[in-house]
Amino acid sequence: MATQQQDSDGRTVASKLFAILDAFTVAPTTASLTLTAIAERAGLPLSTAHRLVGEWVSWGGLTRTDDGRYNLGLRLWELGVQAPSAKNLRSAALPYLEDLFEATHEHVHLAIFDGRDALYLEKLTGHGAVPIISRVGARLPLHSTGVGLVLLAFASADFINDYLDAPLTGFLPGTVTSPDVLRRRLAEIRASGIAQMSEEMTPGSSSTAAPVRDRSGAVVGAVSIVIRTSESAARANEAVVRVAARGISRALGFRSTAG
Questions:
Q1: What's the rounded Cα separation, in Å, for the pair 57 and 49?
Q2: Banded pLDDT at 81 (limits 50, 70, 90)
Q3: Whether 150 contacts 219, CB under 8 Å
Q4: Which of 24, 43, 177, 198 has the most other CB atoms within 10 Å of its CB?
Protein backbone atom coordinates (compact mmCIF):
# COMPACT_ATOMS: atom_id res chain seq x y z
CA MET A 1 0.00 0.00 0.00
CA ALA A 2 1.21 3.52 -0.80
CA THR A 3 0.59 4.66 2.76
CA GLN A 4 3.13 2.13 4.03
CA GLN A 5 5.97 3.36 1.83
CA GLN A 6 8.78 5.07 3.69
CA ASP A 7 10.21 8.40 2.64
CA SER A 8 13.88 9.31 2.95
CA ASP A 9 13.45 10.21 6.63
CA GLY A 10 12.21 6.71 7.46
CA ARG A 11 8.63 7.75 8.27
CA THR A 12 5.68 6.30 6.39
CA VAL A 13 3.12 8.53 4.75
CA ALA A 14 0.54 7.18 7.19
CA SER A 15 2.66 8.17 10.18
CA LYS A 16 2.96 11.69 8.79
CA LEU A 17 -0.78 11.93 8.22
CA PHE A 18 -1.44 10.89 11.81
CA ALA A 19 1.26 13.28 13.07
CA ILE A 20 -0.75 16.12 11.53
CA LEU A 21 -3.79 15.13 13.58
CA ASP A 22 -1.63 14.71 16.67
CA ALA A 23 -0.49 18.30 16.22
CA PHE A 24 -3.88 19.40 17.55
CA THR A 25 -3.33 17.49 20.80
CA VAL A 26 0.10 18.95 21.62
CA ALA A 27 -0.03 21.30 24.62
CA PRO A 28 -1.01 24.05 24.60
CA THR A 29 -3.99 22.66 22.72
CA THR A 30 -5.96 25.00 20.51
CA ALA A 31 -8.99 24.68 18.25
CA SER A 32 -7.16 26.02 15.19
CA LEU A 33 -3.58 26.02 13.94
CA THR A 34 -1.67 27.69 11.15
CA LEU A 35 0.03 25.52 8.54
CA THR A 36 3.41 26.52 9.99
CA ALA A 37 2.35 25.46 13.49
CA ILE A 38 1.08 22.12 12.18
CA ALA A 39 4.36 21.50 10.37
CA GLU A 40 6.41 22.35 13.47
CA ARG A 41 4.32 20.21 15.81
CA ALA A 42 4.28 17.27 13.38
CA GLY A 43 8.01 17.56 12.66
CA LEU A 44 7.43 17.93 8.92
CA PRO A 45 8.82 20.22 6.21
CA LEU A 46 6.34 22.95 5.34
CA SER A 47 5.90 21.63 1.79
CA THR A 48 5.09 18.12 3.06
CA ALA A 49 2.68 19.48 5.64
CA HIS A 50 0.94 21.57 2.98
CA ARG A 51 0.43 18.51 0.75
CA LEU A 52 -0.82 16.21 3.51
CA VAL A 53 -3.03 18.85 5.11
CA GLY A 54 -4.63 19.23 1.68
CA GLU A 55 -5.40 15.50 1.73
CA TRP A 56 -7.06 15.82 5.14
CA VAL A 57 -9.12 18.80 3.95
CA SER A 58 -10.28 16.91 0.85
CA TRP A 59 -11.40 13.97 3.01
CA GLY A 60 -13.08 16.16 5.63
CA GLY A 61 -10.70 15.49 8.49
CA LEU A 62 -9.60 19.13 8.58
CA THR A 63 -11.30 22.36 7.56
CA ARG A 64 -9.65 25.61 6.46
CA THR A 65 -10.98 28.88 7.87
CA ASP A 66 -11.18 32.20 6.04
CA ASP A 67 -8.04 33.43 7.80
CA GLY A 68 -6.02 30.43 6.58
CA ARG A 69 -5.97 28.46 9.84
CA TYR A 70 -7.03 24.83 10.14
CA ASN A 71 -9.54 23.10 12.45
CA LEU A 72 -10.33 19.45 13.00
CA GLY A 73 -13.20 18.48 10.72
CA LEU A 74 -16.61 17.10 11.59
CA ARG A 75 -15.88 13.84 9.79
CA LEU A 76 -13.39 12.88 12.50
CA TRP A 77 -15.98 13.62 15.20
CA GLU A 78 -18.63 11.62 13.31
CA LEU A 79 -16.32 8.62 13.33
CA GLY A 80 -15.23 9.10 16.93
CA VAL A 81 -18.71 9.17 18.40
CA GLN A 82 -19.47 5.86 16.67
CA ALA A 83 -16.97 4.07 18.91
CA PRO A 84 -19.21 1.81 21.03
CA SER A 85 -17.86 2.77 24.46
CA ALA A 86 -17.86 6.52 23.83
CA LYS A 87 -21.23 6.45 22.08
CA ASN A 88 -22.93 4.43 24.82
CA LEU A 89 -21.47 6.53 27.62
CA ARG A 90 -22.39 9.83 26.00
CA SER A 91 -25.94 8.65 25.23
CA ALA A 92 -26.47 7.42 28.78
CA ALA A 93 -24.95 10.54 30.31
CA LEU A 94 -26.60 13.29 28.28
CA PRO A 95 -29.91 13.52 30.22
CA TYR A 96 -28.02 13.81 33.51
CA LEU A 97 -25.59 16.34 32.07
CA GLU A 98 -28.54 18.42 30.91
CA ASP A 99 -30.09 18.24 34.38
CA LEU A 100 -26.78 19.29 35.91
CA PHE A 101 -26.55 22.21 33.52
CA GLU A 102 -30.11 23.33 34.27
CA ALA A 103 -29.34 23.23 37.98
CA THR A 104 -26.14 25.28 37.72
CA HIS A 105 -25.92 27.04 34.32
CA GLU A 106 -22.17 26.48 34.53
CA HIS A 107 -19.78 24.49 32.35
CA VAL A 108 -20.65 20.78 32.50
CA HIS A 109 -18.12 18.19 31.30
CA LEU A 110 -18.08 14.48 30.56
CA ALA A 111 -14.62 12.99 30.00
CA ILE A 112 -12.98 9.60 29.60
CA PHE A 113 -9.47 8.24 30.11
CA ASP A 114 -7.31 8.39 26.97
CA GLY A 115 -3.63 7.63 27.47
CA ARG A 116 -2.14 10.33 29.68
CA ASP A 117 -5.05 12.68 29.02
CA ALA A 118 -8.69 13.28 29.76
CA LEU A 119 -10.68 13.22 26.50
CA TYR A 120 -13.77 15.44 26.59
CA LEU A 121 -16.83 13.69 25.15
CA GLU A 122 -19.38 16.37 25.99
CA LYS A 123 -19.50 19.96 27.17
CA LEU A 124 -22.55 22.06 28.00
CA THR A 125 -22.03 25.73 28.75
CA GLY A 126 -23.93 28.91 29.49
CA HIS A 127 -23.34 32.38 28.06
CA GLY A 128 -22.20 33.81 31.38
CA ALA A 129 -19.88 30.96 32.38
CA VAL A 130 -16.20 31.60 33.05
CA PRO A 131 -13.99 31.36 29.90
CA ILE A 132 -12.08 28.05 29.82
CA ILE A 133 -10.11 26.12 27.19
CA SER A 134 -11.97 22.79 27.24
CA ARG A 135 -14.00 21.74 24.22
CA VAL A 136 -15.61 18.58 22.89
CA GLY A 137 -12.89 16.35 21.46
CA ALA A 138 -10.10 18.11 23.36
CA ARG A 139 -7.56 16.23 25.43
CA LEU A 140 -6.12 17.82 28.58
CA PRO A 141 -3.57 16.44 31.08
CA LEU A 142 -4.91 14.30 33.89
CA HIS A 143 -3.15 16.09 36.76
CA SER A 144 -4.42 19.59 35.92
CA THR A 145 -8.18 19.11 35.42
CA GLY A 146 -10.97 18.02 37.75
CA VAL A 147 -12.14 15.19 35.51
CA GLY A 148 -8.53 14.20 34.90
CA LEU A 149 -7.75 13.92 38.60
CA VAL A 150 -10.75 11.62 39.07
CA LEU A 151 -9.68 9.41 36.17
CA LEU A 152 -6.10 9.30 37.43
CA ALA A 153 -7.15 8.54 41.00
CA PHE A 154 -8.99 5.40 39.91
CA ALA A 155 -6.39 4.21 37.39
CA SER A 156 -4.19 1.21 38.14
CA ALA A 157 -1.32 1.60 40.60
CA ASP A 158 1.19 0.87 37.83
CA PHE A 159 -0.26 3.60 35.63
CA ILE A 160 -0.27 6.12 38.48
CA ASN A 161 3.36 5.34 39.25
CA ASP A 162 4.37 5.72 35.58
CA TYR A 163 2.39 8.95 35.25
CA LEU A 164 3.90 10.53 38.34
CA ASP A 165 7.41 9.41 37.40
CA ALA A 166 7.25 11.51 34.23
CA PRO A 167 7.68 15.32 34.22
CA LEU A 168 4.41 17.09 35.07
CA THR A 169 3.65 20.40 33.40
CA GLY A 170 2.71 23.34 35.60
CA PHE A 171 0.23 25.45 33.63
CA LEU A 172 -0.43 27.98 36.39
CA PRO A 173 1.22 28.76 39.75
CA GLY A 174 -1.44 26.66 41.46
CA THR A 175 -0.94 23.54 39.32
CA VAL A 176 0.15 20.69 41.58
CA THR A 177 3.21 19.00 40.07
CA SER A 178 4.75 17.37 43.16
CA PRO A 179 4.39 13.56 42.89
CA ASP A 180 4.12 13.21 46.68
CA VAL A 181 1.41 15.86 46.95
CA LEU A 182 -0.46 14.33 44.01
CA ARG A 183 -0.34 10.86 45.57
CA ARG A 184 -1.97 12.21 48.73
CA ARG A 185 -4.50 14.09 46.64
CA LEU A 186 -5.43 11.01 44.62
CA ALA A 187 -5.87 8.99 47.81
CA GLU A 188 -8.25 11.64 49.14
CA ILE A 189 -10.24 11.53 45.89
CA ARG A 190 -10.56 7.75 46.10
CA ALA A 191 -11.73 8.04 49.71
CA SER A 192 -14.23 10.85 49.16
CA GLY A 193 -15.34 10.13 45.60
CA ILE A 194 -14.96 13.79 44.67
CA ALA A 195 -12.22 16.03 43.25
CA GLN A 196 -11.94 19.75 43.93
CA MET A 197 -9.42 21.99 42.19
CA SER A 198 -8.98 25.70 41.66
CA GLU A 199 -6.99 27.68 39.08
CA GLU A 200 -4.70 24.87 37.96
CA MET A 201 -5.46 24.97 34.22
CA THR A 202 -7.38 28.19 33.59
CA PRO A 203 -7.18 31.41 35.65
CA GLY A 204 -10.34 32.26 37.57
CA SER A 205 -11.94 28.81 37.32
CA SER A 206 -12.59 26.03 39.84
CA SER A 207 -13.77 22.50 39.15
CA THR A 208 -15.72 19.83 41.04
CA ALA A 209 -15.68 16.32 39.55
CA ALA A 210 -16.91 12.82 40.38
CA PRO A 211 -16.40 9.34 38.88
CA VAL A 212 -18.79 7.48 36.57
CA ARG A 213 -18.84 3.68 36.94
CA ASP A 214 -19.99 0.89 34.66
CA ARG A 215 -21.88 -2.29 35.57
CA SER A 216 -18.74 -3.89 37.01
CA GLY A 217 -17.96 -0.88 39.19
CA ALA A 218 -14.96 0.20 37.12
CA VAL A 219 -14.55 3.95 36.65
CA VAL A 220 -15.14 4.61 32.95
CA GLY A 221 -15.53 8.38 32.98
CA ALA A 222 -15.83 11.53 35.02
CA VAL A 223 -18.37 14.33 35.19
CA SER A 224 -17.65 17.86 36.39
CA ILE A 225 -18.81 21.43 36.60
CA VAL A 226 -16.49 24.43 36.31
CA ILE A 227 -17.36 27.73 37.96
CA ARG A 228 -15.74 31.08 38.65
CA THR A 229 -13.31 30.85 41.53
CA SER A 230 -14.98 33.79 43.24
CA GLU A 231 -18.18 31.84 43.66
CA SER A 232 -18.53 30.10 47.04
CA ALA A 233 -20.73 27.13 46.16
CA ALA A 234 -18.35 24.21 46.61
CA ARG A 235 -20.62 22.18 48.88
CA ALA A 236 -23.69 22.70 46.70
CA ASN A 237 -21.64 21.86 43.62
CA GLU A 238 -20.34 18.70 45.26
CA ALA A 239 -23.86 17.49 45.92
CA VAL A 240 -25.22 18.07 42.41
CA VAL A 241 -22.13 16.60 40.75
CA ARG A 242 -22.41 13.47 42.89
CA VAL A 243 -26.08 13.13 41.92
CA ALA A 244 -25.26 13.42 38.21
CA ALA A 245 -22.39 10.93 38.41
CA ARG A 246 -24.52 8.41 40.29
CA GLY A 247 -27.36 8.81 37.81
CA ILE A 248 -25.07 8.15 34.85
CA SER A 249 -23.54 5.16 36.65
CA ARG A 250 -26.98 3.69 37.29
CA ALA A 251 -27.87 4.18 33.64
CA LEU A 252 -24.77 2.13 32.78
CA GLY A 253 -25.92 -0.68 35.10
CA PHE A 254 -23.92 0.11 38.22
CA ARG A 255 -25.61 -0.78 41.50
CA SER A 256 -23.87 0.39 44.68
CA THR A 257 -23.76 -1.98 47.64
CA ALA A 258 -23.75 1.00 50.01
CA GLY A 259 -26.90 1.77 51.90
A1: 12
A2: low
A3: yes
A4: 24
